[in-house]
Design a protein that fits this description.
The chain is an alpha+beta fold. Helices cover 41% and strands 20% of the residues. A hairpin with a 6-residue loop joins strand 2 and strand 3.
Length: 122
């Protein structure tokens, strides 16, 4: 069962607060910080928050109920899961970890990662 919107929001807020705390910890005193340094801190916070929000959503999508395996593109039989494979992916909002089922046809020996498979995080 998936998380509620309130639970997802709480996770995202926690991640955003951590990124904001990191920015505040690195911030120089007002009289010593330049505009360029302020911009760099803001951009880094945006990157961290975007990546963390994406990761929370990836994790939430992984909690979907399992579905039957895809059909083999060669023989049409149902393919069998050979387990999950993890991969780091650089997205437009930062790096996330995806985990997808790998399927194999015992008859044709064909393997594939179907689109739309569950995503997960480390």
């Amino acid at each position: 069962m998936g998380l509620t919107d309130d639970e997802l929001k709480a996770q995202m807020m926690e991640e955003a607060e951590a990124a904001i705390d990191a920015v505040l910890a690195k911030r120089k005193p007002a009289e010593a910080i330049t505009l360029s340094e302020i911009e760099a801190l803001a951009l880094r916070a945006r990157e961290q928050i975007g990546a963390k929000v994406a990761q929370v959503l990836v994790e939430a999508s992984a909690r979907r109920q399992p579905v039957p395996g895809p059909t083999c593109p060669q023989c049409g039989q149902e393919m069998h899961s050979k387990g999950k494979k993890r991969k780091r992916v650089l997205t437009a909002v930062g790096e996330v970890v995806v985990e997808r089922d790998y399927f194999h046809c015992p008859t044709c020996k064909v393997g594939l990662f179907p689109p739309g498979c569950a995503l997960a995080a480390e």
